[in-house]
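User: Sequence for tRNA-specific adenosine deaminase below. Tokens please.
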Amino acid sequence: MLNVLYMKEALLEAEKAYYKGEVPIGAIIVYQDRIIARAHNLKEERQDPTAHAEILAIQEAAQYLKSWRLNGATIYVTLEPCPMCAGALVQARVDTLVFGAWDGKAGAAGTLMNITHFSRFNHQLEVFGGIQEEACKSLIQRFFNQRR
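Assistant: Structure tokens for tRNA-specific adenosine deaminase:
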């Protein structure tokens, strides 16, 4: 289930965002051992506050599967999802979340709150955090250090 190579693919997506001047977060969605969606942040390019990597990957995966229900899917994302993205993962019925760096400012999969395990929702995700954490964290730190 956990595959470090998939996180490396998510990191490649994050690098695309980095070179576009976007906050470098990347995501891929895997279904039946196959990448069915890949995305990176595009908030600045689209001037859309919802254009997070996770949301864009969910949309692409739903189109691929021709269903909003992503049961059986795993998302790999370089940063712990924010509340919006964690909620979208619950709504999409994604089975598993694998993320790289923990987010002390907006993390909603265990750091500040845990939307992915909220018992009153009708779906919870299996969550693995800190996968390839140093690589994911260093890309984000490099981005913000250059902005300061």
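The radius of gyration is 14 Å.
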